Structures are given as C-alpha cells and as structure tokens.
UniProtKB/TrEMBL annotation:
Keywords, sorted A to Z: DNA-binding, Nucleus, Transcription, Transcription regulation, Zinc
Pfam annotation, one family: Fungal_trans_2
GO biological process: positive regulation of transcription by RNA polymerase II
Organism: Coniochaeta pulveracea
Domain Zn(2)-C6 fungal-type: 6-34
Listed name of the protein: Zn(2)-C6 fungal-type domain-containing protein
PANTHER family: TRANSCRIPTIONAL ACTIVATOR PROTEIN UGA3 (PTHR37534), ZN(II)2CYS6 TRANSCRIPTION FACTOR (EUROFUNG) (PTHR37534:SF25)
Main location: nucleus
C-alpha cells in the first residue's frame, strides 16, 4: 500500500498498519473496510466546509455556502507556493464504523452511506453477531416488577388452560406479547393472575385482583361503544375469554356467577360469526369461549348461549374445504359435537310435537363417525382398566398430548349425555350395551382422563364439570370418594371453587357412609 502512514482505518484505531495492498492484514482480520491513505506527502492543510471566512461578513451566507467576499480587516497568512487539499471524507466515514477493541466481541458496522440510499441499519452486514452487554441493553416492555411477575405467571400457568385445544399457543404467547402494548389485555391478564394466586396461595390480595379487573372494565366499556370496534375484535374476544375465566374462579357458588362476560362474549360472537373461521387470535378465542359456554351449560344443565346452527354452517364449510383435517381440526370437531349434544339434550331435544327421534339418531351417528374416523394418534399411550378390587374405580389413561386427551373426553361425554337423554325420554337403545352400561363406561373414560393426568388442568376441569351434570350416575362409593377428592384438589391446587358442589354431592351421596 503506497504511503508511509498505512491505511486510514488503522490510523483511526491507533494501530500500526502493515500497508499491504489492496487490504492490510489488520482490516482483513477484523472485517473492517480498509481505506487507503492519500498518495503524496506534500505540505497540506485540512480544509472543512464551514471554516469559511465569509461567515464573519455583515451579510452572512448560509453555513457551508461559498461567498467570495472577505471583510476589510481579514488577516492574510503567507502561503506555500504548492498547496494540496486533503479530502477527509473517508476518515470521517470510518469514524462511523463500530469501533471495538481487538479483544472486543463485535465488528458490526453502521454505514451511513447505506442509509443515504434508503437502506435500514438491519440491512448492513454483521460479520460477528456477538454483542457487548451495554449494546444489548434495551428499554423493558414493562417497568413495574409486580405487573411483569403477574404477566409471566399468566404465560406459564393460566395461558395454557385457555390453549388446551389450540396448539398455536395464542393465549400463552400472542396475548402475553400483545399485553405489553395493550392495556385492555394487560389488565385482564393481571386481574386473572392476581385472583388465581389469591385463591391458591393467598400470595396476592383479592383487592388487587378486583382493582385490575375494574381498570380493565374501565377500558373495555368505552371500546364497545366505539363505531370501529370490529377492527379489534380479536383483542376484545381474547380479553372477554380471560375475564370470563376470572369470573369463573371468582364465583364461590354458582349463584354468585354474574355471567357478565359470558353474556358479552356470546353477543360478540353472535354478531361476528366469521370469527370461528377467521384464524389467529380471534379464532382461538372463539374456541376457548365455546368450551366456557359448555362448562356453564353443564353446571346448570341448560342450553348453550351461542347460535350453534349458524356456527355449524360456517364450520362444516371450513372443514370440507380443508380436505385432510389436522389434529386440531379433529379436537375442535369433537368440541363442537359436545356443544351440540349439550344444547340438544338440555334444550332442543323435545319439540311441541314430542321427541325428535331422527335428530337424536343423527347426532349419535355424528359422534360415532368421529370416533371411527379420528386419527390413530388419538389412541391412548397407555391404558389400564378400572379394578375395584385394587381400589381403582376408574381406568388409567395416558395420552401423548393434551389435544388427544381432550378430544377423547369430549366425545366420551357426548356419548354419555346422549344415552342419559335416551333414558330421560324413554328411547330404547339399539346397541348391544344398555344405556346404563354405556353411561358408566363413557363417564369412566371422562373421569379417568381427568384423574390420570392431573397436571393437564383442562382435562381435570372438564371432569369436574361433567360431575356437575352426571353425578346421579356415579353410584359406587369408591368412585364417589375419588371424585370428591378430585373436586377438593382442583379447588386447592387450581383455585376453582367447588365448595357448594362438594356440599351438595356429599349430601346426595350420604357422605357418612363413604369410607375415608
């Protein structure tokens, strides 16, 4: 490399340059651009725009402008006969490269010339991705420690409850990310987390949960009156689902369930049926809300609030278009079949002309078709039959995923409810098994799944709601004792109050005769 000073890049870094051409060894090693020093060593002085003597004149030119007028008192210095002007553009540009010491961990560059051509900093080459601690430091999304802790708790514990049939993890992932910039979702998550911690460990005061809930409602109500609320329907639905779960775990008895968010959610979905097939967070929220509607209907043995006929038309078209269904599709088909069965058995089974036998047969056929055509993956990983002689009133059933366990629970409960309805309206069973035997077998599967994997909270909660609707079909004292224990553990460990149900069932089953 010509010249005695080496390259300008090494000069800027105060390093000795080996003057190799066209690129010195130090620049090659560090990944920096090697900027040659100017040729020639004649006497030179640096000249920069802005050092213009015309700036002292009465009529100042614009900074950097070229005015040839000099003031009368200008001092002139003697000059050499040979003058060269040094272009310092290259060394100035070199100053904008990230300059890390030799033992540093980054040589990433921010080239301002790239920005002049419309490129973003992210488009600049990054030879070494390692960053120093100071470079990595970012402004946190949440500055309040308690809020961050509660939101993290929602992500780890409560989000997966709502994602039971959704392998996309929309509540545990998407909602948590959105909550950092959306106060409606943030306060909904904080209220639910604080309430759950209050119920399970008493580590948060109830007043804190109520305060977060009130803040959320204060944001939610004005949003509903805004004419453009449809643009954020996914956010509204997700917040409503979270607030409904808050409502569920806050109700000490069924009579205390205000159902406010259950009613709000049904209104949103009824007015926006397409949310069931819209994809993303809105669709995930629809399915989470559907199971909440099922849970309430089972607890009170009443019909569903959602317009299932209109929803079914949308869903059938969607599933037909899919061709080959995914496992998530199969779970959601099972969930919708359960919703239809609950709605039919508790509300639509009887008409003014009597029992609709054809509708009963059609619904039963749909359930059996799901059972026969679902993928092999829905088979249990392991199963062990119930054995009263060994103190096991319910089968042991392990599954490889929560989706498989829930899909089986939903269809088994649908079968039990259909057989229970047949008994209620005196329809003879056409199968080889009596209605009583079929009910016992299918309820055993529902309860067995809930008891076998108690770390999978959605299956445990579904088993508890099934007990609310079908407790009269549990006659074996050992089974009764096992299910009362499930209710107690779910209340203690999962913060879902079953005290009133426990008291009712203990009275019904004559708890004094149940062996402790």
């Amino acid at each position: 490399m010509p010249g005695s000073r080496g390259c300008l890049t090494c000069l800027q870094r105060h390093l000795k340059c080996d003057r190799d051409s066209p690129e010195c060894q130090r620049c090659q090693t560090s990944g920096r651009r090697c900027i040659p020093a100017p040729v020639g060593r004649a006497f030179s002085k640096a000249f920069r725009h802005g050092q213009n003597p015309s700036l002292r004149g009465e009529e100042r030119s614009k900074f950097g402008g070229n005015s040839l007028k000099f003031p009368s008192d200008q001092t002139w210095l003697p000059t050499s006969s040979h003058i060269s002007f040094q272009d310092e553009s290259a060394p100035t540009a070199a100053m904008y490269h990230v300059d890390i010491s030799d033992n540093g961990s980054c040589s990433a560059k921010l080239d301002l010339r790239g920005l002049q051509h419309g490129k973003t900093p992210s488009e600049s080459p990054i030879p070494d991705p390692k960053l120093t601690a100071s470079t990595r430091t970012k402004v946190p999304k949440l500055e309040d420690y308690r809020e961050a802790t509660l939101l993290r708790y929602f992500k780890r514990v409560l989000g997966p409850w709502l994602d039971g049939s959704d392998h996309g993890g929309h509540f545990a992932v998407s909602v948590v990310e959105l909550a950092t910039s959306c106060q409606l979702l943030l306060y909904a998550c904080l209220a639910l987390s604080a309430r759950h911690l209050s119920n399970t460990s008493n580590s948060m005061p109830v007043e804190l949960a109520e305060d977060y809930h009130e803040r959320c409602i204060a944001i939610l109500l004005p949003t509903l009156t805004h004419e453009d609320f449809r643009t954020s329907l996914d956010t509204l639905l997700a917040a409503t689902v979270i607030l409904r779960l808050f409502e569920q775990i806050s109700s000490q008895t069924p009579l205390n369930d205000s159902q406010s968010h259950l009613l709000a959610g049904s209104v949103f979905i009824t007015s926006q049926i397409d949310c069931a097939i819209s994809g993303g967070l809105a669709e995930a929220s629809f399915w989470a809300f559907l199971i909440q509607d099922v849970q309430f209907a089972l607890a009170y043995q009443i019909k569903m609030r959602l317009p299932l006929d209109a929803l079914e038309r949308k869903l059938r078209h969607r599933w037909q278009d899919h061709g080959q269904l995914t496992e998530q599709d199969w779970v959601r088909k099972a969930m919708f079949l359960l919703a239809k069965t609950v709605d039919y058995c508790y509300g639509h089974g009887e008409t003014s002309f009597g029992v609709d036998y054809d509708a009963t047969e059609d619904l039963e056929r749909e359930i059996l078709t799901w059972d026969e055509e679902c993928p092999e993956n829905f088979r249990p990983l392991y199963s062990l039959a119930a054995d009263l002689s060994t103190g096991k009133p319910f089968p042991t059933l392990y599954y490889t995923s929560t989706e498989h366990a829930l899909g089986t629970q939903y269809t088994s409960l649908s079968k039990a409810l259909i057989h229970q309805y047949r008994q209620h309206v005196n329809i003879e069973d056409s199968g080889s098994m009596s209605s009583e035997e079929a009910i016992s077998e299918n309820l055993g599967i529902v309860f067995g799944i809930g008891l076998s994997a108690e770390d999978v909270i959605p299956t445990r909660i579904m088993a508890c709601h099934t007990l609310c609707a079908c407790s009269s079909k549990v006659c074996e004292p050992l089974a009764q004792r096992e299910l009362l224990g499930l209710l107690r553990r779910t209340e203690l460990e999962n913060g879902w109050s079953w005290s009133s149900i426990l008291q009712r069932l203990s009275d019904e089953w004559n708890a004094d005769r149940i062996v402790d």
